[in-house]
Amino acid sequence: MKPFALHLLRHGPPLRTGLMLGHHDEPAAPGAHSALIDHAQGLGAAEVVSSDLSRASDGARAIADARAFPLRIDPRWRELDFGAWDGKPSAALPPRQLKDFWSDPDANPPPDGERWSDLLGRVGNAIVDLDRPTIVVSHAGAMRAAVSVLTGLDHHAVWAFDLPYGALLSIRVWRGEGSEPASGQIVGLRT
Q1: Considering the entire predicted model, what is its pTM?
Q2: Is CATH 3.90.1200.10 correct for 4-82+116-190?
Q3: I need a labelling partner for 22 at 20 to 30 A (CA). Which of 13, 65, 80, 89 fits?
Q4: Pairing of strands 47-50, 71-73
Q5: Burial of 1 (0-12, 13-18, 19+ CB in 10 A)
Q6: Membrane spanning segments where (predicted)?
């Protein structure tokens, strides 16, 4: 199968920053979507896909409206579920638990939260359903999971690069044959 472009676009700044925002539906700050629309200019995409959380889906809707692209909402592109930590500042969390989480998010997920491998699984399944140039408006964790799934990089490697609000990460995706997973090559990062 011919490769296609996957443009991962992080949502704009939420109303409140500095929080562990996973599945908490924190809205975007006023004016947060203008940078997303600018980043989407010139991308040869056929559709826009978005997390169902409003900080991402509202921006995706703005891009779809501005570019006359179809929009599809897909909850598999949500951020990692931070469970009991969701919506709290990291400074308010138990330091040892937070350190253990960052060190090994699969063995030490947030209380009542999601494991890194679960995020990889759902984002990997979402990627399987893509087959044409697509803009995905999502979250930093889901974007890192996509990079991990497509390149084989572990969580340490994908958490080592910065993805500020509004960052655009473009990946060329090749479909695997039979039961082989898709693979990808990062072709651009714009902030």
Answers
A1: 0.92
A2: no
A3: 65
A4: parallel
A5: exposed
A6: none
Handedness of CA 83, 84, 88, 91 (dihedral sign): negative
Residue type, 70: P
For 39, residues 6+ apart whose C-beta sits below 8 A from its C-beta are 9, 166, 168, 190
Output the six-digit token pair for 115. 């494991």
Q: Which amino acid is at 99?
A: K
Nearest 5°: the CA angle 107, 111, 117 is 40
